[in-house]
Specification:
By secondary structure, the chain is an alpha/beta fold. Helices cover 29% and strands 18% of the residues. It has one domain (3-248): 4-Layer Sandwich (Purple Acid Phosphatase, chain A, domain 2), CATH 3.60.21.10. The chain starts with a strand and ends with a strand.
Length: 249
């Protein structure tokens, strides 16, 4: 049995499927998806349903799932998007494509999906051997680890899924992570923004933080070559990386 973590798939289901083939993901393995499974790319809803229906996959809430849950109607209706994050989600962060596929689901399917999303954690701890991994989309609050999304207030969730050591506009210091004995696996900020396009396509490591956002959010913007971005997967058992670019499709 192996335990994997991946993040920021942003609707790129075909690349996700290719990754599962490459790592020979089996029913004995477990996969954590660290948020931002949706938006920008075409098949975010399909990724959510795949994770939801798999007994050996788990989703943590990222800022894009957060925006979705604060945009769509809680009762599953699709006549409008009454939530406070509707404009931010639909028109500033690539949520239109997700919402279009969401509307194609039956009412019962939408209700089931929302119920499931509302019971996902933002952050979880995973013990493997002598190492404790803290898995989260970006930031964390110790007291709220393994707490369901629906039980956490809006602003606290915002802080956890948006703040990062790797963007000056939503900055938190790495000291907040370093003071813990855990190994953090996070996403949210593409590694290309830190390492640059001339660097090898791989995870970014800093002290006890490993960043695994491979830049799938760039796919629909057409700003990078297919060999410059994709998905980065970490096998937690030995920290082995599998990095697949869109050139592999």
């Amino acid at each position: 049995m192996a335990t994997y973590a991946v993040s920021d798939l942003h609707g790129q289901y075909e690349l996700f499927k290719k990754l599962l083939e490459v790592i020979h993901f089996s029913e004995d393995d477990f996969m954590y998806v660290l948020g931002d499974a949706i938006d920008r790319g075409p098949n975010g809803i399909k990724i959510l349903q795949t994770i939801k229906d798999a007994p050996n996959m788990e989703l943590l809430i990222g800022n894009h799932e957060f925006m979705m849950l604060n945009a769509v109607a809680p009762d599953g209706s699709v006549e409008n998007t009454p939530g406070k994050d509707a404009y931010l989600w639909l028109y500033s962060n690539g949520g239109e494509v997700t919402f279009e596929h969401y509307k194609e689901l039956s009412l019962d399917e939408r209700k089931d999906l929302l119920k499931w999303l509302n019971t996902r954690f933002l952050t979880t701890l995973v013990d493997i051997g002598d190492t404790t991994f803290c898995l989260t989309h970006s930031y964390f609050k110790v007291a709220l680890i393994d707490t369901e999304f629906k039980d956490i207030g809006y602003q606290i969730v915002w802080n956890i899924v948006w703040k990062t050591p790797y963007r000056p506009d939503i900055f938190v210091p790495t000291d907040d992570y370093i003071e813990n004995d855990w190994q953090f696996i996070i996403g949210h900020v593409p590694v290309q923004r830190i390492s640059g396009l001339d660097a090898k396509f791989q995870a970014f490591h800093e002290q006890n933080i490993t960043l695994i956002d491979g830049g799938c959010s760039y796919r629909e913007r057409g700003v990078l070559d297919n060999n410059e971005y994709g998905v980065i997967c970490i096998r937690l058992d030995d920290m082995r990386e599998t990095a697949l670019t869109f050139a592999s499709l």
